[in-house]
Amino acid sequence: MAFLLHDARDLERRSYEIVTPERRRAARRLWRVDLLQAAAVATVAIAVALFLADGGVAGITDLAGALTASGIVAGLIATDLVLVMLVLAARVPLIERAVGQDAAMGLHRKLGKPVLYLLLAHTVFLVAGYAVADGSGLVGEIVSLWNTPDIPLAVLGLGLFIAVVVTSLVAVRRRFRYEVWHGIHLLVYGAVLAALPHQFSLGGLFAEGTWQRWYWLLLTIAAFAAVVVYRFGMPVYRSLRHRLVVEAVEPVGPIADGVVSIRLRGDDLERLGATGGQFFVWRFLTRGQWWQAHPYSLSAAPRGGSLRITVRALGRGSAGLASIRPGTRVALEGPYGIFSEASRSRSRLVLVAAGIGVTPIRSLLESARFRPGEATVLLRTRSADEGWLLHEIGELCRARGATLITIPGARGAGWLSADAERQGLSLVQFAPAVVDSDVYVCGPLGWSEAVVAEARAAGLRPEQIHHERFDW
Amino acid sequence: MRARAFVIASAASAAALLAGWQLGNAVTGPAATVASSGGTSTTGSGTDASAGTSSGSTTSGGTTGASSTPSTDTTDSGSTTDQAAASGAADGTYAGATIGTRFGDVRVQVTISGGAISDVTALQLTDHDGRSVSISNRAAPILRDEVLQAQSTSVSFVGGATYTSAAYLQSLQAALDAAGF
Q1: What share of chain B is helix, strand, coil (3-state, %, to 5)?
Q2: Cα–Cα distance between A82 and A164 in angstroms, integer?
Q3: A154-205 tens-digit pLDDT
Q4: What ipTM is given for this predicted complex?
Q5: Residue contacts between A and B (CB atoms, under 8 Å)
Q6: Which of A270, A364, A402, B162 has the fewest Cβ atoms nearer than 10 Å?
Q7: What is the distance between the alpha carbons of residues B80 and B48, in angstroms, rounded to a whole number?
Q8: What angle separates helix B130-150 from helix B3-37, to the nearest 10 degrees?
Q9: For residues A408 and A416, what is the distance between their CA atoms, to the nearest angstrom?
């Protein structure tokens, strides 16, 4: 069953715009995405080209030469990809606005294991190649390499990198608290730095006086600069500049739900450039909380020196949030994500949320550009007229001319309730123009995937479907 | 990855690899001639480099060029004496041991004059391929300058030439030991 709480479908007027601003914006954004992806691939090609430019292929005359060359190329690609990973994780605004943190981190996650394999191949191939060239046997070669300057440091770097990748494997990662895992993950900066000296001292490719040496040095410096500036510098600067404090903590819905809205006040908040649907990483600076970083979406569009988030006691850290007192200072990182106007591609809008996933939907509904009749909000709620922030969303829908439908009831096989499924309801029936709409989905991972799958099946293109995951 | 991104990425990568390949061919060509001229060019450039840098110690006669004929007469007339002739080493030229590396053998010869190291000549440098030749040729003059300055083998390795540096200094140490320096 589904309940039509507000019907704005008949308000839609024919649009005479041939190319809507949303389509133009999406075209520009997709160009940026494509160019960024191409640039990432090109750096890998350049890393190999450095080897070729040094006449590396001429050295492949026998088995030892082939092994050595493979080892060097593996090391070059691996190091280049590690730098790409650093940049992906650095929250660089250019990348952030093009693909959003979620997609950038998705690629970052995918690269971890291949890079580890490449680093191991680099080690194995070079030891083998040198051993064959010297005729000194594997053990002798390892001993001789260990006594080579900068090699023990590089081995330490490899060890750190293995630790970072292994603790990030899904099965292993679940055993750690986020903060512990993240602490281990920060070792990667040590790993990259420890591996640096041997690249410049031992690798003839980057010998003093070569242009390759300059390129590699600049690439490394640029990657670290991006991390220092955007990952660490910006959050500290913004936290100090905007001096955010908790203004009020209000329960949302029944107290037993543990859902609270936290209103925050600060200086010059409009300078953050945040918009509805985006999220920040928050740290509440109290004795027991400061070390926990919480990614939460805005639940209201930022305005007038005030931000609001709505949170549910989900994770181990969130439970204490209800007891946060007004006046508590807050550090923030962000705004992050393109679950916002930044990723629009059509003039029509379908917002789909379940549970506490309603929060970014609520703020996006407030700041999104649409005309009456062009937006539809679909909410999986507890009952027909009861759900977190449902009252606020109802008011926004009435004020802005958006259709609001709630789908209450027990979970079915897909994203709908069991009885809505029995009735044969679907995305297309709720929003007949969904094929020519942007669909924003926020809710538990499995549920969201079901919505995304149905949207794809209905014929929506990838750039029309917006979904960001917030679990780490 | 979208089709357009794939096309751009492929084009950019192909361009980079092609440029690298072209540069690589250009590098390996001349490198072969460097290799054939052997150690002579090494010591030649070493003398050039030292003329400007090592504080008035050498008068740079360029006579150290002949790498194959160890000359016993001191090469530099005005060679340094302010480096206190503390060592009991007799003046003369001493060849070091041949040190094997995976890129070729390295052997150097040291000239002692007035109880100080007045010159170091490379008799043989890594020569396995064009790359190791060019790396050694770059490293040898730098090492020579550092040794003349430090008057010992405790000098830092040249970046990108760890093997050459290690073997060069090891061979030099053997020569100094032979000289009783």
Answers
A1: 50, 15, 35
A2: 12
A3: 999 999 999 999 999 888 888 888 888 988 999 999 999 999 999 988 877 8
A4: 0.83
A5: 118
A6: A270
A7: 17
A8: 60
A9: 9
CB contact under 8 A, A203 and B4: no
Query: What fold, for A244-336?
Result: Elongation Factor Tu (Ef-tu); domain 3 (2.40.30)
* Token representation of residue A386: 């009861």
* pLDDT over 90, % of chain B: 24
Could you tell me the strand order of the sheet in which A465-467 lies? A3-6, A402-408, A375-381, A348-354, A437-442, A465-467
A55 vs B131: CB contact, 8 Å cut-off? yes
Instruction: Provide, as residue numbers in chain A, all residues whose Cβ is less than 8 Å from the Cβ of B168.
Output: none
Instruction: Tell me the whole-structure pTM to 2 decimals.
Output: 0.81
Q: Would you call B12 and A206 a contact, using CB atoms and an 8 Å cutoff? A: no
Q: In which residue ranges of chain A is CATH 2.40.30.10 found?
A: 244-336
Instruction: Tell me whether residue A34 is exposed, middle or buried, using C-beta atoms within 10 angstroms of its C-beta: 0 to 12, 13 to 18, 19 or more.
Output: buried
Picking from A48, A57, A148, the nearest residue to B162 by CB comes out as A148
- Which chain B residue shows the shortest CA-CA distance from A134? B102
Task: Give me the mean pLDDT over the B14-42 stretch.
Answer: 64
Q: pLDDT digit string (tens) for A191-209?
A: 999 999 999 888 778 877 7
Distance from CA of A187 to the nearest CA of B (A): 26
Percentage of the residues of chain A whose pLDDT score is greater than 90: 63
